[in-house]
Each structure stands twice: as C-alpha cells, then as structure tokens.
Give the backbone structure.
Amino acid sequence: MRNRRQHRGFSLTEVLLAVGTLAVGMIFISGTFLTGIHFSTISTERTIAAVVADEAFAKVRIYGIDLTDPNLAASRQTRFESVSLIPDVEFAYPSTRTSAEKHYYWSALCRPVYSDPDNRLVQVTIFISRKVGSSTMYPGGLVRPVPVQVGISGAIGNRILTITGDIQCINDGYTIIENGTGNIYRVVERGADPAHPEQITLAQDKLWQGGDSVWVIPPPIGGGRYPCIGIYQKVIRF
C-alpha cells in the first residue's frame, strides 16, 4: 500500500485541465502567427511596390510622352500607354525575360500640370498591382490590372460621394484618384447605408475637393482580392 501511494499518477481531471489550458494557449499562439503572417505579407508587398514604382518611373522617362497628343489635357487624366509607344511587356515586373508567370504589374495616368504647351511638367501617377492566377481577367478583357474611370456625383459633408458608374469597381479600402486634379483619396466604406449601396465614405485625412469622376484599379472579373498594393505620384519634366 505504501509503495502504491508513492507511484500514484495524475487523475483524469488533472489531465483534462492541463490539456484544456494547453489548447487555449495554442489558440492564442496560432492567432498571433496568423496576424504576423498577414502583416509580414503586407510589409513585403509594400517593399516590392516601392521597387516596382522606381522601375516604372524610369520607364516612363525612357519611353517619354507625346506632349502634342490631343488626349493630353490639364483637366483630365490619360492612360500612359495611349500617349506613349511603350510595349505591353514593359508593364510586367520583373522586367527580365523569364518563363515564370509575372505576378506584379504597373500602370500609369498622366496629366499636364499646366495648359500651356510650352510647359513640359506632367503629373504621373503610378499604380502597382498584383495578379493572382494566369487565367485571371479584368474589366475590358484585359489580362493585367489597369485603372478605369468611374463617374461620381455630389458630396455630402465632403466625405460621402455617390457612384454613378459601376459600383462594383469601388469597395471598402480602395484608393481612388480624382480625374481633374490627381488628388488621392482612400475609401473607408461603400454602402454604409444599406439603402444606398452606391455611396462611398472617404477617410477623414483628406476631404473631397470636387470632381465628376475618379480612377481606380477594379477587382478581377468574377470578384477577388483588391489588386492594387501601392500608388505613387511624381511631377516629371519631359
């Protein structure tokens, strides 16, 4: 009897308590890992976006812009490929020749800073986007993410706008570019009022200054993750 008491093991209750405590701890630890992976992915993509943007601005300078093109106007944005002879392959990153699928693409909008034709300053806005899947398609039958123009009307308190175009092009967390000035705005939420799914709410860091349309990178056809990972803007002399 004395020897049996000395070698007594854990009871079933003690084992269950230990396993339960371990399970709760693992749940918190796994949640921390998922959060860490999420922020690590965001950090990596932002680093890549900065590198792609530097290359994109360099290509914009190399290929140049036809300043006499009638599509260019100080009052509106114009897609870079419509005023330049740049080939489509130059929009992929990395730009080196490889058999691997390209996962990142850039696109650009251009707007002369002044209407004076002798002034060669042009505002260039670069969009950096990811593409997931070789069969993914975008509005207009495009194989890469390209900004589209969406109509906007009215402003409630300089923060709530009404979409007059395709409301599926703009969703929560998207970034939009005002057509006339190139001002950059961040969308906090679309359809805050269920009765008005066409209304979007802008972040408080920048109030709406007017305009009838915006440019935005739309989601893939059929839905999916927001492709745009960064927007950069410079004024370049051509």
Observations:
- The radius of gyration is 25 Å.
- The first helix runs from residue 2 to 6.
